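User: What would this chain look like folded?
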Amino acid sequence: MDNNLINKLEKFYDLNDHEKQETLISILNLANDNPKKFINAIQNEKFNRLNNLPIIYEALSKDLDNWADFFITEIERLFETAKQSNTPYSILNHLQEFTFIDPNKFKHRDRIVEILATQLDNENSTFRFCALDLLPDFVKDDDMLTINKMKKLLKDENWRIRYWTYLNLKDIGVLDEQNDKLSWTDRLRSKFLNNLKFQ
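Assistant: Here's the prediction, encoded as structure tokens.
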């Protein structure tokens, strides 16, 4: 990676929109020139706030024909690595960058839903939240098996999970307003407590 591109990566969020798009295209071209070398570099990135993973994921999402398999491998890597961490959220929050993927152009859409749905049963609330947070971007309207699994979290032991489940189901239009309600205590908690406190 040349110094000019490294410099742009470091200052990415200060660039204008045109410069950002140019940088993303440069990253994608570099990745397509030598995919194995690029993937190896990605896998050596540390999971912290200073890494370039969000930018890299956005760049690669522009070429799902070549990088769809990578994203499946990557989501599995994120969950597996998080299992070994005392602060899994510092790793799993990178899943937010998968929202750059166009689900209608992603050949592994069903597989990513399957992976996320499995994590809804995880005993660690951080895993449940991160899976729940990404699922609305990929779950299909007629996938009642996954939607019903999400609905079970309306009665999760963790009030933050209940709160975000309610909001996510409401956003994708599958909430039963008669039966799927958020308790007044959870509404109160959401107003006065940090609803994103996950480790």
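The longest helix spans residues 64-83. If you want, I can go into more detail on any region.
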